[in-house]
């Protein structure tokens, strides 16, 4: 084992760049995914059958196929379609499809949106009937019931499942290394492996970074659950 | 053009093979891990705890690359130490099966542990009172009853495992994702080929869901559900 090579400044810098890319990918895809998920969850539980059907088909396809293929479809696939290629030199959204970061981000956001939407929709459906009834009895309309009663409690009850999703997403970002020119933690490790031929050291260092990141995320969610789910905790006395 | 679709279709056989073999490995490791965690012996318990925490905190891809590249070098080192001049290459199929099995063994451990804990304690006491030894009690009492509790978690793990086989393409196994990527590079029409590969995965996961739903119904026979 030659750990000193890993700790050389230029290699530490490589890992640091990787960590920044990984975290940036993780948090931006989670943010975009969360907004999309909220909209999708409302459509999934909403009154329009067509919307339920379309969003349902979307989540089914995303959840039934590997993320790696979704990344390939967006990165290699969309760039080949003529109606995108024809526009990607000057028309606004299309020019981003040239960038690998954007393609990875799009794939991750669409992926996490599908999983999170199903979780949220489940929590919305499980809101206790009594709460909704009493809200209606107070004269709240559909929108008010959603805004004041259903969503606040559903978002809280999704927290434990969502913490799993966030940790899974952190690990999924390692697939960004399959896109050329993306330098996340895994890609940094691969680069060090191929330069020095040191697979153990390079990948163990990457594994340690992911492990620490997972623990930090889990810790943050523990705190959040203590804060927001205190009313659901078992009584102490 | 059609030849590529046929090749991808043939690659799907390998995908099914890798995932099923990995499933067997992961079930065995999961049962071992769960019994280690429930054994009450501190050493076994902490080994199993370390296994599940580390594996579940590290991306599959990193574990896979570590086992594949690290394993090759490690084996060759061992051979060198033993005085042999031969070099080995790890077979991507075997590497894929072992790493996927090893990774999902950690998830199965948690699923099985929860399922075993859900079985009423009296069942075990009765088995002991009837003079069954631990293996008999496991096969006759625990196993048939834990299936029902384990199935939902098992279904999730299985679906994730199927999708993870796509990662094995990155270490060079010629399964359908790998062939899809090659076909795209050769023909310059990646969208169609990746869509085709994705559709094959979707068919595989859909069939799995159907079968597991039937199994769930079979193992829930005779259990009373609360009326709300």
UniProtKB/TrEMBL annotation, chain A:
<protein>
    <submittedName>
        <fullName>Amino acid ABC transporter permease</fullName>
    </submittedName>
</protein>
<dbReference type="InterPro" id="IPR043429">
    <property type="entry name" value="ArtM/GltK/GlnP/TcyL/YhdX-like"/>
</dbReference>
<keyword id="KW-0472">Membrane</keyword>
<keyword id="KW-0813">Transport</keyword>
<dbReference type="InterPro" id="IPR000515">
    <property type="entry name" value="MetI-like"/>
</dbReference>
<feature type="transmembrane region" description="Helical">
    <location>
        <begin position="57"/>
        <end position="75"/>
    </location>
</feature>
<feature type="transmembrane region" description="Helical">
    <location>
        <begin position="203"/>
        <end position="224"/>
    </location>
</feature>
<keyword id="KW-1003">Cell membrane</keyword>
<dbReference type="GO" id="GO:0022857">
    <property type="term" value="F:transmembrane transporter activity"/>
</dbReference>
<dbReference type="InterPro" id="IPR035906">
    <property type="entry name" value="MetI-like_sf"/>
</dbReference>
<keyword id="KW-0997">Cell inner membrane</keyword>
<dbReference type="InterPro" id="IPR010065">
    <property type="entry name" value="AA_ABC_transptr_permease_3TM"/>
</dbReference>
<dbReference type="GO" id="GO:0043190">
    <property type="term" value="C:ATP-binding cassette (ABC) transporter complex"/>
</dbReference>
<keyword id="KW-1133">Transmembrane helix</keyword>
<comment type="similarity">
    <text>Belongs to the binding-protein-dependent transport system permease family. HisMQ subfamily.</text>
</comment>
<feature type="domain" description="ABC transmembrane type-1">
    <location>
        <begin position="19"/>
        <end position="221"/>
    </location>
</feature>
<feature type="transmembrane region" description="Helical">
    <location>
        <begin position="23"/>
        <end position="45"/>
    </location>
</feature>
<feature type="transmembrane region" description="Helical">
    <location>
        <begin position="95"/>
        <end position="115"/>
    </location>
</feature>
<dbReference type="GO" id="GO:0006865">
    <property type="term" value="P:amino acid transport"/>
</dbReference>
<keyword id="KW-0812">Transmembrane</keyword>
<dbReference type="Pfam" id="PF00528">
    <property type="entry name" value="BPD_transp_1"/>
</dbReference>
From TrEMBL, chain B:
<dbReference type="InterPro" id="IPR000515">
    <property type="entry name" value="MetI-like"/>
</dbReference>
<comment type="similarity">
    <text>Belongs to the binding-protein-dependent transport system permease family. HisMQ subfamily.</text>
</comment>
<dbReference type="GO" id="GO:0043190">
    <property type="term" value="C:ATP-binding cassette (ABC) transporter complex"/>
</dbReference>
<dbReference type="InterPro" id="IPR051613">
    <property type="entry name" value="ABC_transp_permease_HisMQ"/>
</dbReference>
<feature type="transmembrane region" description="Helical">
    <location>
        <begin position="149"/>
        <end position="171"/>
    </location>
</feature>
<feature type="transmembrane region" description="Helical">
    <location>
        <begin position="191"/>
        <end position="212"/>
    </location>
</feature>
<protein>
    <submittedName>
        <fullName>ABC transporter</fullName>
    </submittedName>
</protein>
<feature type="transmembrane region" description="Helical">
    <location>
        <begin position="90"/>
        <end position="107"/>
    </location>
</feature>
<keyword id="KW-1133">Transmembrane helix</keyword>
<keyword id="KW-0997">Cell inner membrane</keyword>
<keyword id="KW-0812">Transmembrane</keyword>
<keyword id="KW-0813">Transport</keyword>
<dbReference type="Pfam" id="PF00528">
    <property type="entry name" value="BPD_transp_1"/>
</dbReference>
<keyword id="KW-0472">Membrane</keyword>
<feature type="domain" description="ABC transmembrane type-1">
    <location>
        <begin position="12"/>
        <end position="213"/>
    </location>
</feature>
<feature type="transmembrane region" description="Helical">
    <location>
        <begin position="6"/>
        <end position="31"/>
    </location>
</feature>
<dbReference type="InterPro" id="IPR010065">
    <property type="entry name" value="AA_ABC_transptr_permease_3TM"/>
</dbReference>
<feature type="transmembrane region" description="Helical">
    <location>
        <begin position="43"/>
        <end position="70"/>
    </location>
</feature>
<dbReference type="GO" id="GO:0022857">
    <property type="term" value="F:transmembrane transporter activity"/>
</dbReference>
<dbReference type="InterPro" id="IPR035906">
    <property type="entry name" value="MetI-like_sf"/>
</dbReference>
<keyword id="KW-1003">Cell membrane</keyword>
């Amino acid at each position: 084992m030659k750990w000193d090579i890993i700790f050389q400044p230029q290699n530490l810098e490589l890992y640091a760049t990787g960590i920044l890319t990984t975290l940036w990918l993780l948090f931006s895809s989670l943010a975009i995914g969360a907004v999309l998920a909220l909209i999708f969850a409302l459509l999934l539980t909403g009154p329009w059958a067509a919307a339920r059907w379309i969003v349902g088909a979307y989540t089914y396809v995303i959840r039934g196929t590997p993320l790696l293929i979704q990344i390939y479809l967006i990165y290699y696939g969309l760039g080949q379609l003529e109606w995108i290629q024809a526009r990607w030199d000057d028309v606004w959204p299309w020019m981003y499809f040239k960038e690998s970061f954007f393609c990875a981000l799009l794939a991750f956001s669409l992926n996490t949106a599908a999983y999170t939407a199903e979780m949220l929709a489940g929590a919305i459906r499980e809101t206790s009937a009594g709460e909704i009834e009493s809200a209606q009895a107070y004269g709240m309309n559909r929108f008010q019931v959603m805004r004041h009663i259903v969503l606040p409690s559903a978002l809280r009850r999704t927290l434990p499942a969502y913490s799993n999703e966030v940790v899974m997403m952190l690990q999924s970002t390692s697939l960004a290394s399959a896109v050329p020119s993306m330098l996340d933690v895994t890609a940094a490790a691969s680069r060090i492996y191929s330069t020095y031929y040191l697979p153990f050291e390079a990948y163990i260092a990457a594994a340690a970074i992911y492990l620490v990141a997972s623990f930090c995320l889990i810790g943050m969610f523990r705190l959040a659950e203590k804060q927001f789910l205190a009313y659901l905790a078992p009584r102490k006395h | 053009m059609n030849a590529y679709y046929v090749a991808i279709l043939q690659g799907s056989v390998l995908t099914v093979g890798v995932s099923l073999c990995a499933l067997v490995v992961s079930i065995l490791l999961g049962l071992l891990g769960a019994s280690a965690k429930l054994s009450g012996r501190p050493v076994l318990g902490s080994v199993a705890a370390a296994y599940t925490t580390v594996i579940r905190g590290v991306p599959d891809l990193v574990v896979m690359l570590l086992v594949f590249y690290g394993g090759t070098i490690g084996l060759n080192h061992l051979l060198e130490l033993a005085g042999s001049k031969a070099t080995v290459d790890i077979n991507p199929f075997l590497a894929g099966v072992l790493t996927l099995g090893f990774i999902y063994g950690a998830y199965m451990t948690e699923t099985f542990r929860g399922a075993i804990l859900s079985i009423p304690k009296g069942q075990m006491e009765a088995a002991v009172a009837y003079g069954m030894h631990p293996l008999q009690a496991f096969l006759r009492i625990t196993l048939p009853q834990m299936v029902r509790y384990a199935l939902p978690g098992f279904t999730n793990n299985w679906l994730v495992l199927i999708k993870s086989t796509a990662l094995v393409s990155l270490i060079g196994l010629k399964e359908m994702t790998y062939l899809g990527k090659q076909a795209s590079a050769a023909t310059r029409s990646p969208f169609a080929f990746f869509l085709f590969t994705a559709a094959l995965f979707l068919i595989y996961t859909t069939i799995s869901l159907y079968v597991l739903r039937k199994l769930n119904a079979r193992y829930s026979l005779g259990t009373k559900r609360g009326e709300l």
